[in-house]
């Protein structure tokens, strides 16, 4: 049984342990009886000034009642004998455990719902005007909750956030909903959920762990002081949508992750989203009026890797730097061996940073590309028009060069315009 709880509570002696079984908690009791027992044990711990309520190994029914979650008082912890050993089952279509003060901890047990549409397992939410700090979950596994597994939603402006350590969510509608700043999840697992992890706040950190086989892996949404968060060192594999970014305004970093299979969507996200030092094997990447940087990324074509650079007709700002395939060959945006976006349109590359820019082979309509890579006099870029259409290339507005079909040219900046230095097939 862990004692890390007291370090979260801010110091002091080792807390007293209150055995849930001493208050009527039993594998043979009804869900309502066990709810009464656990409330009594928590009340005793709170009256003592804080403590651990311990649930032994076994399978226990729990029914907290409609609209009456079990409140965990300040400086109290609810702990079991381990995931897979202490198992709580419930059919109540409602919230189950909720923080009711600072320094609350839940650890070392498993909960199994029945997928009810309003089922929530654990919520770090005061329910009033106060904002609780130092909420922690460690080694808690949640299965089949029809709304939220872990909902980290402290009210107000609490700056101490929450910590989730080695927690797991399976078959929930939202496995983890992170909605308060300064929340950190370390070595957590989200698998087979509708959405593995929803991020609706800023200063969030997801470190290590796995987000696998969800419909959506990470859903990054606009919210108060959103984004400026990180996902690092994680396996985010085999989700239908790996990352979905929607109208965030404060940037985001995905670093050192394995991102195999799934679509990446960037919608109306003007602030920079950066993927750095990742292994990336997307099904597709869709850019819709967004700003995205790929830095030091290894690109795999295992799942196709199609690119739509101007989804919805909205051009995006993309920076591709040191992006290579598995053999070390450079990849530059949507212009190297990727399925073309067909139809007449404008594809904007505000900063491609490509030494060679290959225009799309097989496009069915003429189009214009824009690249501001040659911002200084004398810089040049090799452009190859592999399409069946005459295309226009420019490094800034009003400085363009037209390339005939299946021709190439060095484009050089003379300080005012982009001009062809040489051309040929």
Concise structural overview:
The chain is mainly beta and 425 residues long. The chain contains two helices and 41 strands. Helices cover 5% and strands 44% of the residues.
Account of the protein in words:
Helices cover 5% and strands 44% of the residues. It has an 18-stranded parallel beta sheet that branches. The protein has an eleven-stranded parallel beta sheet with strand order 4-7-9-11-14-17-20-22-25-28-31. Strand 38 (391-396) and strand 39 (399-403) form a beta hairpin. It starts with a helix and ends with a strand.
SSE blueprint:
Elements: H1 5-9, E1 16-19, H2 31-48, E2 51-54, E3 58-61, E4 70-73, E5 76-79, E6 86-89, E7 95-100, E8 105-112, E9 120-123, E10 135-143, E11 148-152, E12 162-165, E13 168-170, E14 174-178, E15 184-186, E16 189-191, E17 195-199, E18 205-207, E19 210-212, E20 216-221, E21 229-232, E22 241-246, E23 252-255, E24 258-260, E25 263-267, E26 272-276, E27 279-281, E28 284-288, E29 291-295, E30 298-299, E31 306-308, E32 317-321, E33 324-325, E34 345-349, E35 356-359, E36 367-371, E37 380-385, E38 391-396, E39 399-403, E40 407-413, E41 418-424
Parallel strand pairs: 1-2, 2-5, 3-6, 4-7, 5-8, 6-8, 7-9, 8-10, 9-11, 10-12, 10-13, 11-14, 12-15, 13-16, 14-17, 15-18, 16-19, 17-20, 18-21, 20-22, 21-23, 22-25, 23-26, 24-27, 25-28, 26-29, 27-30, 28-31, 29-32, 30-33, 34-36, 35-37, 36-38
Antiparallel strand pairs: 37-40, 38-39, 40-41
């Amino acid at each position: 049984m862990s004692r890390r709880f007291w370090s979260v509570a801010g110091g002091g002696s080792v807390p007293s342990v209150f055995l849930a079984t001493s208050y009527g908690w039993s594998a043979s009791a009804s869900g309502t009886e066990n709810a009464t027992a656990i409330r009594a044990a928590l009340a005793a711990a709170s009256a003592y000034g804080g403590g651990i309520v311990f649930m032994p190994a076994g399978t226990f029914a729990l029914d907290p009642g409609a609209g009456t979650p079990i409140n965990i008082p300040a400086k109290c912890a609810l702990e079991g004998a381990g995931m897979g050993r202490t198992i709580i089952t419930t059919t109540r279509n409602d919230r189950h455990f909720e923080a009711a003060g600072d320094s609350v901890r839940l650890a070392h047990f498993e909960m199994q719902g029945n997928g009810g549409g309003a089922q929530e397992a654990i919520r770090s939410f005061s329910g009033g005007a106060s904002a609780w700090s130092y909420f922690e979950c460690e080694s808690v596994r949640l299965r089949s909750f029809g709304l939220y597994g872990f909902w980290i939603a402290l009210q107000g402006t609490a700056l101490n956030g929450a910590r989730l350590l080695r927690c797991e969510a399976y078959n929930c509608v939202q496995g983890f909903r992170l909605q308060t700043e300064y929340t950190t999840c370390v070595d957590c697992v989200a698998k087979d959920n509708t959405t593995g992890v929803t991020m609706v706040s800023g200063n969030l950190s997801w470190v290590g762990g796995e987000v696998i086989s969800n419909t959506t892996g990470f859903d990054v949404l606009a919210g108060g002081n959103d984004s400026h968060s990180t996902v690092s060192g994680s396996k985010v594999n085999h989700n239908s949508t790996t990352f979905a970014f929607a109208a965030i305004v404060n940037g985001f970093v995905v670093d050192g992750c394995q991102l195999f299979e799934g679509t990446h969507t960037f919608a109306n996200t003007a602030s920079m989203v950066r993927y750095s030092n990742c292994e990336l094997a997307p099904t597709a990447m869709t850019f819709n009026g967004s700003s995205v940087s790929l830095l030091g990324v290894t690109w795999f074509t295992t799942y196709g890797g199609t690119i739509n650079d101007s989804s919805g007709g909205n051009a995006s700002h993309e920076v591709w730097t040191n992006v290579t395939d598995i053999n070390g060959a450079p990849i530059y945006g949507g212009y190297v061996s990727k399925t073309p976006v067909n139809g007449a349109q404008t594809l904007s590359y505000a900063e491609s940073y490509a030494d060679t820019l290959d225009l799309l082979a097989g496009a069915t309509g003429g189009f214009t590309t824009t690249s501001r890579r040659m911002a200084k006099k004398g810089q040049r870029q090799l452009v190859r028009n592999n399409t069946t259409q005459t295309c226009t290339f420019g490094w800034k507005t009003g400085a363009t060069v037209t390339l005939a079909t299946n021709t190439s040219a060095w484009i050089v900046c003379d300080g005012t315009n982009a001009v062809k230095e040489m051309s040929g097939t």
